[in-house]
Amino acid sequence: MDHSNSALARYLPSPLPVIHPVPEVEAEDELLEVYQDTKKILRAPWMGVVTMAFAHYPHFYQTLWQGLRPALDSVAFQRACVDLRHHIEHCVTQLPVSRLTSRLSDLGYAEAEIDAIRDTIETFSAGNMPYLLLATQARLLLEGHALSNKTSIERLPSNSSETNRSALSLMEPHHCLPDTLELYDRIKKQLGLPFVNTDYRALARWPSYFLEAWDDLSKHLATPPYSRIVEGIHQAATDLALELPNPNHLTPSTLQQAAAKDANLQEVLSVVQLFQYLLPGLTANVAVFRTQLT
């Protein structure tokens, strides 16, 4: 099996698939347990839209999750997340990002408020890495690419799966005043996506800040340097995903057969491709937000 970068080209499915994520606040019984376990093992205080959309296909997600769960709770996976984050944050230094701290002070933000924004950005800076790697492994498997044949793992200490970060406060559309709703529409249009990611809904808790942050970021979205950065993040995630241990021997055929029990295989694949496409850009954008407040 070819494990070179060319094994997985970055791809946005067309037409965009319809996704059916079940929000955390509506999850009950077995699904709630799945969500809690996902957050615990990924060390994230929120259930990403990606995994909520995957969980709509229960056989697929159960097979993916149980197949990869030991590896996701390993030292190797944690190290891959750290390496991926460092790569992303180094890459965005190539962009002429504006510094916004003084601007926020001029708007009336206290230092404690700016620190709260930084803390929220830090949550996503760390927490998006496992979601990107998980989505990349899911796409590799559904497209027929074998994962690593490494089976030995070093488990993380039992307390390292804990996160000290509190639950996020999200600005859902029904919470928003017209200016924020207009910004959400602009985000979807500029990114070519049918929804607004959790990261943006969390940062929109500070509407005047987020408008400034998005306006600065949006200047870069259509530029060649930004495109090269996002492509590089995709390739780095692919390389890491192919090297991670696979102690449960999860195979393409096993995951494909599970997905086919839930829906047409192409439907499930399109949903996976959508998230695996958008997450490199999302991680780059969060790194830009972080740089804006340094």
From TrEMBL:
<protein>
    <recommendedName>
        <fullName>(R)-2-haloacid dehalogenase</fullName>
    </recommendedName>
</protein>
<dbReference type="InterPro" id="IPR019714">
    <property type="entry name" value="2-haloacid_dehalogenase_DehI"/>
</dbReference>
<dbReference type="Pfam" id="PF10778">
    <property type="entry name" value="DehI"/>
</dbReference>
<dbReference type="InterPro" id="IPR029032">
    <property type="entry name" value="AhpD-like"/>
</dbReference>
